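The records we work with from here on pair a chain with its fold. Taken together, the tokens spell out the fold as the letters spell out the chain. To see the layout at work, look at the sequence and tokens printed below.
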Amino acid sequence: MQVERLIARIRGQLELGTPDLEARSLAGEYVALCQRARERLEQCSTLIRSGNEHAAYQVAESEPDLLTLCAELSFAESERWNALCRERGLPAAFPLDGQHVMALEGLYGKEIGENHPLYRDYRDAIRKRDEDRALSILRSIVRINANDPNARSELSRLSAKFLREALGKVTSFFAAQQNADAVNLMNRMERFGANDLADEPQWEQALAKRVAWLRSKAVEQIERTKSMSFINCISESIKSTFGKSCK
């Protein structure tokens, strides 16, 4: 599930006050994301301390980009959510390491020149006509050197090209019932300015199909959770009646 949607669903659970059957699934997914973010932060911090800033950038910029992920996971109600999870016996996440986050933010505070390995990697990607890789590297460069007009212009050009081509692929994926592939590609498109497609009928149709598919997946998850809860209740009933668990 995309992080923004996961957080929205968690906020919905907080509004309920008494988490429903979906809460355990959401809690588990949130904990897993936080754990992966903590591991990446620790890796970046180690690389920065060792002076290997280029490798740290590569770890931080692999999708989803680490700073954005940390900001999303540290949403305003995150402490309240974790407290509720602990209270109800649901998986609860450990907070992200503030020192590691600060070290990563400091890395992005340093401007880089055209001899930096990121610019070298970008030129290599262009030379090999690997536009997907070039696009990802350019986004990293623009995040660090926001005032580089050439990089910003080229990022806009490549992003627009990627979005046009990806939209056709998304339509084909949905037509072939490859819904997960379509949704994954849409998530990537949204990181490269998919808002520019707001007036495109194909994009609007794709958004509606994504909502329908995600809703169906959520219903399936809830039904599985209900089934497991029912099985556990039966097992506990048998255990209490006969003094042993169901084999």
